[in-house]
User: What shape does this take?
Amino acid sequence: MQSRAIGIFDSGVGGTSIWKEISRILPHENTIYLADSKYAPYGKKSKEDIIALSIKNTEKLLELNCKIIVVACNTATTNAIKTLRSTYDIPFIGIEPAIKPAAIRTKTKKVGVLATKGTLSSELFTKTSELYTRNIETIEIIGTGLVELIEEGKINSPEMYTLLNSYIEPMIKKDIDYLVLGCSHYPYLIPILKKMLSNKVTIIDSGEAVAKQTKAVLTNLWFLNPKPDLGKHQLFTNKNVTVLTEILKQTRVDYTVKRIEF
Ligand code: DGL
Assistant: This one.
């Protein structure tokens, strides 16, 4: 069991922002990453479709013999993790917009949340938001088109800059001091966001927290890989190998990238 891989999936290449944290915090673990780019974006799809795609990805990771599954996608977590947990007898770790730390720390009492339509309209997000943001104003903006541009390999394009600016402007006008990134693709936009936002605005993403939670669950279950070697990392995409390889450019660990059908 212990030497089996940690399975990770996302609607595309964005979840590699979580995979990077996992491979950093758990260097001896083997990982298998599925980029479901063929069916991206998930954010505009119905809850039923998101559940069906999450089941498809889970089945593939089980076929590949994974010991735990990390749903490295806010949209899939907020819409499908309940179903996954009640259907499969394997631990699941999810990712949700980190609204709680932002709500606790904000001084201006204004917090921006940038996420997909699927996440912002989900029951899970709505409940979490209601719980922690009673005395503050949240400015929730749907990042329409951002995932598509990232999936096309256009992170540093003029289109990206214009689109992102149109979502960030209203938040700046409202005087936010925290920006919660509620989509695992968005950490790749941090360098651009930093140019748009003053340094009074703190950007929060959940990658490190998810990796720490994965470590805690594996430790509690005695599932950690005891071998001293560095983990093996296999990344699979059902669409474009070049885009996935490009996004991994500055990664320090060794990995392989391959196109497969799933
Ligand atoms: N990375 C996914 C998320 O965290 C992107 C969703 C999408 O494909 O629209 O929500």
